[in-house]
Amino acid sequence: MTNDREKLAQWMINKGYSTGHGDTTEDLLKELEWQIAEQDKYTELLLAVGRKFPGETRHQTALRYINEAERLTDVWPKREKE
Description:
The protein is about 65% helix and about 0% strand. It is elongated, with a radius of gyration of 20 Å. The protein starts with a helix and ends in a 9-residue tail after the last helix. The protein is mostly helical. The chain has one domain (about 1-75).
């Protein structure tokens, strides 16, 4: 099984994934599953950018939108705790 673990770890590294603290094949698979799920969330966020600003990547435009929205919330009245 160690050989399978080493093969999986090498595949993950070659594909740009972190192996974390994966001592077993099962640990590596859990880490990989988590990283893929996080990557899917990031992809969803980027694809939500319908039009990017000229000269920017989708990532930069998404960050711009988030920062602008955060600045707008600074002027909203604070809500009472429910």
